[in-house]
Automatic annotation (TrEMBL), chains A, B:
This is Kynurenine 3-monooxygenase. PANTHER family: KYNURENINE 3-MONOOXYGENASE. The keyword Oxidoreductase applies. Its EC number is 1.14.13.9. It comes from Hymenobacter sublimis. Pathway: Cofactor biosynthesis; NAD(+) biosynthesis; quinolinate from L-kynurenine: step 1/3. Pfam families: FAD_binding_3. Belongs to the aromatic-ring hydroxylase family. KMO subfamily. One of its GO terms (molecular function) is monooxygenase activity.
């Protein structure tokens, strides 16, 4: 307890509800600013969980996430267990492969294990003398006026009331802290589900632990109304996810038997099936999960409570930005803590005012990218357009950064990226009718059109 | 209990949570189809409440509401206590009055007291041998799987568990039944608040119980960013509502003292102030209420639970359609009960599929009409456009019904009305640049333009 006694008078004991990726990172940042932190996590300590722990899920770390990890000195050690993905590889029904780089030479997104990353961050949290962490602590109810929360210890099956002065709700898409805000007057809230679910599957490692598909890529099987994707693991396997309608002729509802699953996969993903020895078992053992976008506002209750991460803005996974956006929340809060010191009202207000439009833009971008991934990447005209955009970007680097790069390889606010991206798409709609091949880009009349468009920007 | 014993084998005991206007009407319709009904209401019996009952609020009954009341034989007795409003009267800051009729000659909306209407309907409910009603029954929790709800008797302060086979959630904008659906997977939900609140005020009856303003009108003081309205009561008084921003230079937050309230009203509503003897007292005694739009889907849980009225689709009050939409829910359900008999799955599914797009359209229309009432009705060009529309409608009755009439004086599905209204607005945008006065409508070139537009419809 020495660390609490030594707390400087202007620092506080802060309460963090949620010890997932964003909660752990947040606790580290708050401690960095001299505060004592009490962190509660609903689940058991993932580091002590047996082999039956949650299925391993992969996340795509990109620049916004890396910057946030760098701020707490953890980036290098994470990079050691991340697999770089330089681009997308599309698999046609006929097994034909098409490659699309994500950015310029040397730019990649990184496949990391959610569980592995969380373990590493919890180690750091536990080593930090300013942070005290408790697992199996389920928040059942928050009393905003009394500034208390009822917490159930799920191991002991005992409830107790915990007081807080300042509570950070980082408890995910189904946040219990947000539920308390939702009962206050004038709290705007929406939860919107896609008509699609997802199921996790596995492409096994090749003999000797090598990769059966190109390791440094994100693989996509785009099929118009649905898709499968695969992200590489360190051990040679790939984590696959099938994004698929709940209902309809091709849907989860339509695949009821192992034979139906096999027939469907052999027809739609024939090059993947031989690499998925556990296909039918996994299909019926693993849950079908839903895809929700949560928006709300305000994210604060006075200067007592602040929501961050999925609790404030849960998004669908198609841009690989859910974790990155939550990590960027921590970067922004870190900057505000540095700027406003202990003026929590200023910190909380500016945080939500700055982040809300960006979170909304990212939510829109994530839904937009689903259509791109499941449908447009299979269209040669779309891929040609991406190549032309890349050429424009190379020729006019100060005037043009492709939307994907703005989101993934820059720190531009998401709302600006989305607005720029929509403007750029309009320009491409004007240019593409004049372009039938990559070579056309050099034609003088096309060059003149591009120059005129750039002149106007 | 004889009535339950005599229930025909194909009928059921149905549970209705909520005994407000829509809940009472629903119970009457369900009983009409031979079912036994158990109705629970959270509040005390409004008929036994003392003089301190809820402030009297007026509602605008229009054609959809009347049809639903006719179906249970209550329309005529309600008409006796309703005040017809033939149009809007706008009050300028200078006290100038402008009249705009709502529809054709003989078409009106009707000001009725919410409490009075509810009392009348509860009398009918209680006289019905198939309906059993209990007051002071607060639904605390619905267990969808067990088909039970925990109900607190707020008089006895005792909780009990009530089983249901089929539950109708008619418990308003903050529905407890909906809260249970919200915890199921893939339940889409949003609650969105306007930045405006409202406050109820009173224009007193003139000496002798006469009306100090024109009785047969809805009065509006449109002031751009806010407005006051007044609806007539039977006793000569008017119920006023101030719709006003929560924050800002002219807002509830800015009016903190009786002197500030008086100064503001004297500046903005000078012709009303002398008629409001209790202005300052009411302003500070009456609550400032918020304005929410609630959307959700599905409205069902299997064939066990169905949401209706505000529980399914709470809207802001600016089109006077909240109650009418809830009553129309009952009309639609009544038709489906007649068509599908005891196939509850068919009834529930068709109900939500038919009503959801109409409820969404009505929610949009209600927000749209706020801008019209607080701002556009003060614009002479807008009023001219309404007059021209009325002339088009008279000349081409089969091709043109003004949007307001479609919503208020027809039974066209709201979604169709809204779509038609938007098309008609586009036509008016093309016509109005050619029209500077009412007389211009007869000019040959304008007549030709109108004829050409009608040709295309």
């Amino acid at each position: 307890m020495a660390e609490f006694a030594s707390t400087a008078p202007e620092t506080e004991t802060l309460t963090v509800m949620g010890g997932g990726l964003v909660g752990s990172l947040l606790a580290l940042y708050l401690a960095q600013h001299g505060h004592s932190v009490e962190m509660f996590e609903r689940r058991p300590d993932i580091r002590r969980a047996g082999p039956v722990e949650a299925r391993s899920i992969n996340l795509a770390l990109s620049d916004r996430g890396w910057r946030a990890l760098e701020g707490v000195g953890i980036a290098e050690s994470v990079r050691d267990v991340a697999v770089a993905m330089h681009g997308r590889i599309m698999h046609s029904v006929q097994g034909q492969l098409t490659y699309q780089p994500y950015g310029q030479e040397g730019q990649s997104i990184y496949s990391v294990s959610r569980a592995g990353l969380n373990r590493r961050m919890l180690d750091l949290v536990e080593q930090n003398p300013r942070i005290r962490v408790a697992f199996n602590q389920q928040c059942q109810r928050v009393d905003l006026r009394q500034q208390t929360m009822d917490v159930l210890d799920t191991e002991l099956n005992q409830s107790r009331t915990v007081s807080f002065r300042r509570l950070f709700g980082v408890d995910g898409a189904y946040s219990a802290v947000r539920a308390a805000l939702q009962r206050t007057d004038r709290f705007n809230y929406s939860q919107h589900y896609l008509d699609y679910g997802y199921k996790e599957l596995t492409i096994a490692a090749a003999p000797g632990g090598s990769w059966a598909l190109e390791k440094h890529a994100l693989h996509i099987w785009p099929r118009g109304q649905y898709m499968m994707i695969a992200l590489p693991n360190l051990d040679g396997s790939f984590n696959c996810t099938l994004f698929f309608p709940f209902e309809g002729p091709a849907s989860f509802a339509a695949l009821q038997t192992p034979a139906q699953v096999r027939a469907f996969f052999e027809q739609e993903f024939p090059d993947a099936v031989p690499l998925m020895p556990e296909l039918e078992t996994e299909f019926f053992d693993n849950p079908t999960s839903s895809l929700v976008t949560v928006r709300c506002y305000p994210w604060t209750y006075h200067d007592d409570v602040l929501l961050l991460g999925d609790a404030a803005h849960a998004i669908v996974p198609f841009y690989g930005q859910g974790m990155n956006a939550g990590f960027e929340d921590c970067t922004v809060l870190h900057e505000l803590l540095a700027r406003h010191g202990h003026d929590w009202n200023a910190i909380f207000q500016e945080f939500q005012q700055v982040r809300k439009p960006n979170a909304d833009a990212m939510a829109d971008l994530a839904v937009y990218n689903f259509e791109e991934m499941r449908d447009r990447v299979a269209d040669p005209r779309f891929l040609l357009q991406k190549k032309i955009e890349s050429k424009i970007s190379a020729q006019y680097p100060s005037k043009w950064l492709p939307l994907y790069s703005q989101v993934t390889f820059s720190h531009l606010p998401y709302a600006e990226a989305w607005a720029n991206g929509q403007q750029q798409e309009q320009i491409m709609q004007r240019l593409m009718p004049h372009i039938q091949s990559e070579e056309d880009y050099q034609r003088p009349e096309v060059q003149a059109l591009v120059a005129a468009e750039m002149e106007r920007r």
